[in-house]
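Q: Give me a protein?
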Amino acid sequence: MYKIAENYPELVDYREDAETYLLRAYNIFCTQNNGSVGYGANCGTMGESSVPDIIEALEQEGYYEEAQNMLRIMEENKYEAFENRPYPYGSEYAYDNTAEEGVFVAAMLAQEYGFESDPYMSPEERIKALDDKTRACRGVQPLWYYYANPVTICNENWWNFQYSMALAAVPMDNWLRLQDNGMTQEEKGVAERVNYASKLGNLTCVNSGQICVDPETIGTVAWSYQSEMGDYAAVGDIRYNGWRHRAGESGLGLWGALRILSADVATDPIFGLFGYGCEVNDNGSAYEVTPLDGVQQRLHLIDEEIYIELNRDQYTKAVVNKDGTGFTLTVDSNGTGDKHDLELEVYGLAAGSYQIQSGNYTGTFTAAEGETEKVVVPVTGNGSEITVTKTTAAGGLTVEIEEPAESVVSDTVKLYGKAVVGGAQIIGADKYEWTVQESGAAIEDADKAVAKLNVTEAGVYHVTLKATVGGETKEKTVTVTVKDDPAMKELVAQFTFEDDTIEGKDETGANIANNATVNSVGDTMGHTALASNFQRMEEGEDGKAARFTGDIKGGYLEMTEDAFKRLESATISMDICLEAEQAINATLMDLGGQILLYFGEDGALHLQAGEAESVSTNISMAPEFWKNVTLVADGDNYILYVDGKECASVRGTGVFLNQLGSSKRYLFGRSQVENGAFYNGLMDNLTIRSRALSADEVAGLVDVKEHVPLEAVPTTITTQVGVAPSLPAQIKVLYADGVYEMTNVTWEAVDPELYAQMSKFTVKGAVNETVTAEINVLVVDGDSIQLEQLPDTHADSIMGDRSTSDGPSILITHEEPTDSYQWGSGAWQNWGDGSQNTNAWVSYTWDSPKVITGSDAFFAIDGNQNFFPKSYYLEYLDENGQWRPLESTSGYKVVMSGYSNVTFNPVVTTGLRLTMTPSKDGSAILKWKVYGWESNATPPQDVPVTGVALNKDELLFTEAGASETLIAEIAPHNATNINVSWSSDRPEVATVDENGKVTAVANGTAAITVTTEDGNKTDSCVVTVEIPEPGHVHDDPLKKVEEKPATCTQEGNKAYYVCESCGTWFEDAAGEKPITDHDSVILPKTEHTPSDWKADADNHWKECTECTETIAGSLSAHSFEWIIDREATATEDGSKHEECSVCGYAKEPVRIPATGTGPVDPEDPATSEIVVETDAGQVRINTNGIDLQRIANALVST
């Protein structure tokens, strides 16, 4: 696309400029080789022959740093990956040929740029070896090679139509034409047959779809065209009617043809003079060639070693002198423009000076032996004739500078210079020197052909380029006009995502088309965002909001450097609403790969800038709540706010918004990493400001949200039979402002009978007066076991019966691994399946429920860095057969050569599933352990409801609309099912809602009844509504009900007034402010005041100091440990006692017999061990079964 847009600028209305396409090619190359995707540095990939072209184009556009980076990657990654392999041409199979093209390019660059030599062969030797191997795989190998195993992929079926066919001609063509191959003319003729056969074979890959049941696939591309039915088991493909039809690498057919097709003239030892892709006539001193290859931009005279290539247009006829003294081309511009420059690359002309003519244009150039000359000539329309003839006149050196476009101060002005000889020949100068006369200006890359001018203020600048070739130096000066930037507005961009701000929808007008434009609104700088792969908008907090689905299908937003390059300081703000818990490292914003907001392993939003360590906000956002996220950039200091409050910062990072660069990406909803996790949720009101807001200003962007507990998140724990459960002091609570916090909780007392045997029960607690909590307790017996080893375990995977590797049962039977590279005993992996580039899962299911508390997974990796997951997560199977995420996990850290351990709140389930996100290609596990207890250890024992009681027996209302809430207390307090329903026998008198709130309607009496779901237990309250008749005069004075503080046993009330005649409540003594909501006056019971520990022989507890009621959750069994009161000696007894480590309750002391006498109690540690004082400290010797008296007597006699 870069070459098309660069060479044919007027051909179509391009979506991007040529440089954008070039930088995308560059970034794709970098991504492919940075380890984030499969088949990068360690493998060969199709299309790598374009790498030298990309490097050359980057240098021509002045991207020298990027060009050097590509060379570095090719040397340090690609070349070094292959130089230590005697047979480096394969990929995952040693007999594959995917890497032919990549190895050739690495060797060719090593040859040109002098990479360090490899231990096996020089770059030239490796190119030759590659040429031999490539030809051997194309029908010229001996029979033993053809039929050998495992080189089946080199057989007839594959060498004609397999996926490297498209560009196999690249290394063969290079070896034949451009290397010192030492071939005779006859050998060249034979080599040219296979060389051009590959080019012809490539044409069969263009629109070469498969035989398939789906008519829509007819005529489309294929993954690897097979000329016979069947398949290779190692590849594991899905076929239709026995044939492959997947779209894939053979789509390179058209692109490959554009890169390799040519008209070749050679002398064949059998057929004589032969034109490959052309008609050729020998007129004695010259060849007359009519190209038939379709591309018509390359002409190769193989015997004469004369090669001509056009950068654009097509030649329709060529006459080339055999002695290399000139040629004539007839050029057709295909209607792509009138007058324009055509660039020719010519190799093999006889050394000397040449004149080139086209219409009224005449120029000269010089050819050197064995060199490629680059010549530019203007042509006009179709049928232009270009003539090159030898001459004695040599042209002089001139300097040309492309006229710079008008720019503004914030722009970097590209300066394109050329050293030209004879007006036609572009050459590399020995020296370039750019200078600028005016102050306040600086030039980058001043010693290169393409330089960059940066200025600090508007004005006219005079820029001079000096070029030196040999002993000749010439210069040229141009003026560059730089205007002031448009006045910077405070609002740089503002995206509200309303329908009228979106350009680009599908035919229905409802969905966002791919690559739609999102327009900025309001008085802004007018920058836009690209909605790449976007799907839709949804209703948000304020109108429409952008919907991100958490993967590439759900899209992301991308902005250009223009929005940020003038921002020394800025404020970036957005409203977000999470759809669900975010994947680890899901990215909310990534500016140039340097400034990131992402969700870390702790589930909180993290801030990272440059090399500084990332900082967590420590705020766990809840789904379905709108939160404001604001990043303030003050120079290289960054402060992150959530809902107007500062929660993270990094300072002195050395990273500035306006210095990130044009080759970077500016992304919202994803990161630069190709397979990184995407944001999943809504986004609205994305705003970029041109200054750093103060903390007060940021706080003013959002409405203050009340931070009060809303509801507690239920959780589950285990305890052993007979052991009181260790109830957590804090529980995860959702707050009204949409965050989760660990919050103190008070638990009710736990009856020891509940954990006296294997069972399941629920403990209730209170976070505050209105928010209750629940914790499920699973009573188990004995140590946990590896549940996957049970006989009713069933292993499954995403591949099911399609597995081309060890089945998922290998996860159970695999020997204990020690190394992630340890594949000797097998592994589950999904290579060859459609899931290898997407999330892949394995699962265990059981015939009966199990209690599961943890998991250990040992992941695998191969030598090409495939299969190792970037991240993973676990889900359990609920009672409805749906996979649900686990709560309160310890974090999903992925460990190399060790177990990746996860612990979580226990679940009772019949299934556990592990899902992996690949780092590159494929996913693999060596062993997977799951911990917990069998289901018979936790038989469900629900606690039934025995009764229910309301807090009031009767209510009186004197005004329609007056209300009060009844409270139902269920017995016992630990009943499993506490659901109730409310009803009124006369709703025309009084109604009741689902929360027990009673509201008066009209005069009369009604019974409000609460009914438990479990057991249908009931209680009722009589409600009387007596609305005074019109004209009723309230008591004067009204009776004052004095304020009564609430206690832990009864409710209280605020002070209020009541008319005893009618029962109406008032706030004031004058009776002007009636109270209709009685709940506003009633004060709920207070919390108990705990005493010091109380205890009996078995348990300890705390009582309320006011009412003596046992504090909920405090009753538990003692935790005894032995306390030595006095050590025994050889002659005197000692003593000890048992004491509770929690409450201090102590049992009666018991005797410790003297160490020299007395019987030994094996069960008593104090009488079954000797304490010996040594220089190294105290040593305890177990003496069970030893006659201490005999030992003492022996010691005395000795």
Q: What stands out?
A: Residues 30 and 349 are 38 Å apart (CA to CA). Confidence is low (pLDDT under 50) at residues 141-161, 222-238, 243-251. Residues 64-83 form the longest helix (20 residues). The radius of gyration is 42 Å.
